[in-house]
Amino acid sequence: MEVRLADCAGFCFGVKRAVDTVYEQLKNGKTIYTYGPIVHNEEVVKELSEKGVRVLENKEDLKQLKAGENIPTVIIRAHGVAKEIYDIMEANGLECIDATCPFVKKIHRIVELKSNEGYHVIVVGDPKHPEVEGIVGWCPGPVTVLETPEQAENFVKTEGEKLCIVSQTTYNYNKFQYIVEIFEKKGYNDSVVNTICNATEERQRSAKTIAADADVMIVIGGKHSSNSRKLYEICQRECEHTYFIQTLDDLHLDLPKAVRLVGITAGASTPNKLIEEVQNYVRINF
């Protein structure tokens, strides 16, 4: 039996940068807070918690944190935050260290600029995802979040209104293109910016290729991770026996009798050591 790991699996550039930022700050002996979990992986957050890193869950938590004799350090999560969060930190005299993924930061600049130019911003993505909430928070003007082609079909713009369409970085590339085509047919294609991260596209393509050939497919990722869930959806369409796990403890394989190839992929917030644990376990036990 062959065990094959996808070419693009595990920490992406933005996640690695954010996690490394937290560990660098811990060396200074400071009390470290992150605004929201630094990344969407429970194992990473748990490990940082054991080292004393505290998570601020919302802006009410943040407002309670004020500079006194010691200035608290707050690290912005990889998913980014709304402009309002920066304003609160400045008003409270907090040290802000920005670990927002540069690709997300680019979207903030685009939507702020276009919104100030009078465009109605359309964000294609999950309205409950922190990255999307952050993007919305950089739009001073009208903004709409669309998650499905049906919502795009039902959207009607105001006469004379200009639209700027962007995407959550981890949104499914093919779905985004389909939604853009819907808007183009309506004549709503004033400004379209494909802001899906290259790493996301490569990860999805690589996972699909292996899943199409695999008898069993394992997707490793956090339960709240958008890109991990999308990898699972893509793999499930290609491979009937697809499993979504967070850690090795979740892996309960019910393998078909003849297994030729087990494929493994992992979300952008999954640590390499966890991927290696799963790989080694499958090789040894099956």
UniProtKB/TrEMBL annotation:
<comment type="similarity">
    <text>Belongs to the IspH family.</text>
</comment>
<feature type="binding site">
    <location>
        <position position="227"/>
    </location>
    <ligand>
        <name>(2E)-4-hydroxy-3-methylbut-2-enyl diphosphate</name>
    </ligand>
</feature>
<feature type="binding site">
    <location>
        <position position="79"/>
    </location>
    <ligand>
        <name>(2E)-4-hydroxy-3-methylbut-2-enyl diphosphate</name>
    </ligand>
</feature>
<dbReference type="GO" id="GO:0050992">
    <property type="term" value="P:dimethylallyl diphosphate biosynthetic process"/>
</dbReference>
<comment type="pathway">
    <text>Isoprenoid biosynthesis; dimethylallyl diphosphate biosynthesis; dimethylallyl diphosphate from (2E)-4-hydroxy-3-methylbutenyl diphosphate: step 1/1.</text>
</comment>
<dbReference type="GO" id="GO:0016114">
    <property type="term" value="P:terpenoid biosynthetic process"/>
</dbReference>
<feature type="binding site">
    <location>
        <position position="225"/>
    </location>
    <ligand>
        <name>dimethylallyl diphosphate</name>
    </ligand>
</feature>
<keyword id="KW-0414">Isoprene biosynthesis</keyword>
<feature type="binding site">
    <location>
        <position position="40"/>
    </location>
    <ligand>
        <name>(2E)-4-hydroxy-3-methylbut-2-enyl diphosphate</name>
    </ligand>
</feature>
<feature type="binding site">
    <location>
        <position position="79"/>
    </location>
    <ligand>
        <name>dimethylallyl diphosphate</name>
    </ligand>
</feature>
<protein>
    <recommendedName>
        <fullName>4-hydroxy-3-methylbut-2-enyl diphosphate reductase</fullName>
        <ecNumber>1.17.7.4</ecNumber>
    </recommendedName>
</protein>
<feature type="binding site">
    <location>
        <position position="101"/>
    </location>
    <ligand>
        <name>[4Fe-4S] cluster</name>
    </ligand>
</feature>
<comment type="pathway">
    <text>Isoprenoid biosynthesis; isopentenyl diphosphate biosynthesis via DXP pathway; isopentenyl diphosphate from 1-deoxy-D-xylulose 5-phosphate: step 6/6.</text>
</comment>
<keyword id="KW-0411">Iron-sulfur</keyword>
<feature type="binding site">
    <location>
        <position position="269"/>
    </location>
    <ligand>
        <name>dimethylallyl diphosphate</name>
    </ligand>
</feature>
<feature type="binding site">
    <location>
        <position position="79"/>
    </location>
    <ligand>
        <name>isopentenyl diphosphate</name>
    </ligand>
</feature>
<feature type="binding site">
    <location>
        <position position="225"/>
    </location>
    <ligand>
        <name>(2E)-4-hydroxy-3-methylbut-2-enyl diphosphate</name>
    </ligand>
</feature>
<feature type="binding site">
    <location>
        <position position="129"/>
    </location>
    <ligand>
        <name>(2E)-4-hydroxy-3-methylbut-2-enyl diphosphate</name>
    </ligand>
</feature>
<feature type="binding site">
    <location>
        <position position="226"/>
    </location>
    <ligand>
        <name>dimethylallyl diphosphate</name>
    </ligand>
</feature>
<feature type="binding site">
    <location>
        <position position="226"/>
    </location>
    <ligand>
        <name>(2E)-4-hydroxy-3-methylbut-2-enyl diphosphate</name>
    </ligand>
</feature>
<feature type="binding site">
    <location>
        <position position="40"/>
    </location>
    <ligand>
        <name>dimethylallyl diphosphate</name>
    </ligand>
</feature>
<feature type="binding site">
    <location>
        <position position="129"/>
    </location>
    <ligand>
        <name>dimethylallyl diphosphate</name>
    </ligand>
</feature>
<feature type="binding site">
    <location>
        <position position="169"/>
    </location>
    <ligand>
        <name>(2E)-4-hydroxy-3-methylbut-2-enyl diphosphate</name>
    </ligand>
</feature>
<feature type="binding site">
    <location>
        <position position="197"/>
    </location>
    <ligand>
        <name>[4Fe-4S] cluster</name>
    </ligand>
</feature>
<dbReference type="GO" id="GO:0019288">
    <property type="term" value="P:isopentenyl diphosphate biosynthetic process, methylerythritol 4-phosphate pathway"/>
</dbReference>
<feature type="binding site">
    <location>
        <position position="226"/>
    </location>
    <ligand>
        <name>isopentenyl diphosphate</name>
    </ligand>
</feature>
<feature type="binding site">
    <location>
        <position position="129"/>
    </location>
    <ligand>
        <name>isopentenyl diphosphate</name>
    </ligand>
</feature>
<dbReference type="Pfam" id="PF02401">
    <property type="entry name" value="LYTB"/>
</dbReference>
<feature type="binding site">
    <location>
        <position position="269"/>
    </location>
    <ligand>
        <name>(2E)-4-hydroxy-3-methylbut-2-enyl diphosphate</name>
    </ligand>
</feature>
<feature type="binding site">
    <location>
        <position position="227"/>
    </location>
    <ligand>
        <name>dimethylallyl diphosphate</name>
    </ligand>
</feature>
<feature type="binding site">
    <location>
        <position position="12"/>
    </location>
    <ligand>
        <name>[4Fe-4S] cluster</name>
    </ligand>
</feature>
<dbReference type="GO" id="GO:0051539">
    <property type="term" value="F:4 iron, 4 sulfur cluster binding"/>
</dbReference>
<dbReference type="GO" id="GO:0046872">
    <property type="term" value="F:metal ion binding"/>
</dbReference>
<dbReference type="InterPro" id="IPR003451">
    <property type="entry name" value="LytB/IspH"/>
</dbReference>
<keyword id="KW-0004">4Fe-4S</keyword>
<feature type="binding site">
    <location>
        <position position="40"/>
    </location>
    <ligand>
        <name>isopentenyl diphosphate</name>
    </ligand>
</feature>
<dbReference type="GO" id="GO:0051745">
    <property type="term" value="F:4-hydroxy-3-methylbut-2-enyl diphosphate reductase activity"/>
</dbReference>
<keyword id="KW-0479">Metal-binding</keyword>
<keyword id="KW-0560">Oxidoreductase</keyword>
<feature type="binding site">
    <location>
        <position position="269"/>
    </location>
    <ligand>
        <name>isopentenyl diphosphate</name>
    </ligand>
</feature>
<feature type="binding site">
    <location>
        <position position="225"/>
    </location>
    <ligand>
        <name>isopentenyl diphosphate</name>
    </ligand>
</feature>
<feature type="binding site">
    <location>
        <position position="227"/>
    </location>
    <ligand>
        <name>isopentenyl diphosphate</name>
    </ligand>
</feature>
